[in-house]
Design goal:
6 strands; 136 residues; 4-stranded mixed beta sheet; alpha/beta; homotrimer; 24% strand
């Protein structure tokens, strides 16, 4: 019950299997290290032209290549520092396996919201299940 | 004085009137149930190819169809739980009227900021009016 | 050590030098007034069709023109109100110089996260340097 959604930004022109592998590996890391259920998967991928995606190639932990991905996770509840760090490491490891990203090319930002700032559907706040959906 | 802005993500290929109805109904719900002035309307609509918009069809309150919309509201001040829930319900109801979305196809996430984390224009923080704009 | 990233939304069809000037001037304001290192530059520019970018032309500090930009800064640590306001003013001033935006056409929103909600690369949390990257 953790409801993150991920916004993944990368340079335009990557083949579809590359993009799919980025999305898959990122979600695998969320499941394995961030307490996210397997089916709790919501991802937006934004492919940007070079003039639309400006990133410093060297600032902190570079160098970054054209494979650079900026991942923004909007999370539904806070995680402690150890969990966050484990997630970062797992994400880098899995993305290194597929599609083969270099560790330097993975930047992650997490924004934290509260559980009842989410409605998954039917106008119901949070993850309260088993109640009739008010608006259906 | 509430300054939200909304980022609406949906699958590419919807007709313009469908998209407009989504935006209109969502804003109507913000006005009626979230304390947003009618003219305080700022919306970004992102139409995504299927491989750019990955969402689980069944996780919590599904099933979701190709009409699924993910709405991310960045709000300028906190609302209480009752207000948020009333807004979710109103949004689902209005989106059900036009363009006719199923309740299961409406996911909403709210991020909360502080009032003076906004500048509507002219370099002026928050909603302080009546002062000369410093940079004009 | 401040790690913001900026998401800049504007209407589609602007010439490349216009877009570049928006990005450059905004970053210059972050550096000069928001405590951001020159090389700490990460920007996403989203060019939107008119039906994808709905903004009220007059609400608070308008009127807004087709040059309107909505800038969303995701910051890595809180700033005090004076810093934020100085940044707003600086941004409007620099964007007025290049590409020549009117003050009314600059809207800024800041979301604040915590330092260790960021990983710049290599799976390392925050800005801790000098340690071996765990996943490399």
């Amino acid at each position: 019950m953790t409801m993150p959604y991920a916004r993944i930004s990368l340079l335009k022109g990557k083949p579809a299997p590359h993009i799919r592998a980025v999305a898959d590996s990122l979600h695998r890391a969320l499941v394995d290290a961030f307490g996210v259920p397997l089916k709790d998967r919501f991802q937006i991928i934004q492919s940007l032209a070079p003039e639309e995606f400006i990133f410093d190639r060297d600032y902190l932990f570079g160098p970054r290549s054209d494979d650079f991905v900026l991942v923004h996770i909007t999370a539904g509840r806070p995680r402690d520092a150890a969990t966050r760090e484990a997630f970062y490491q797992r994400a880098v490891a899995y993305l290194g396996e597929a599609p083969g990203l270099r560790p330097e090319d993975v930047m992650i930002v997490i924004s934290t919201t509260q559980t009842d700032e989410w409605s998954f559907g039917c106008g119901v706040a949070g993850v309260l299940g088993g109640r009739p959906a008010p608006a259906s």
